[in-house]
Amino acid sequence: MNPEEYARMHQFEDWYWWFVARREAALQFVRDFRPGDGPVRILDAGCGTGALLECLARERGTNVYGADLAVEALAFSRGRGRRGLVQADLIALPFRADTFDIVTALDVVEHVEADTAALAEIRRVLKPGGILVMSVPAYAFLWSSHDEALHHKRRYTAGMLAPRLKDAGLVTTRMTYLLSVLFPAIALFRLADRLRPQTGPAHAHLVPVPAALN
Question: For the segment 8-28, what is each residue's pLDDT rounded down to a tens digit?
Answer without folding.
Answer: 899 999 999 889 999 999 999
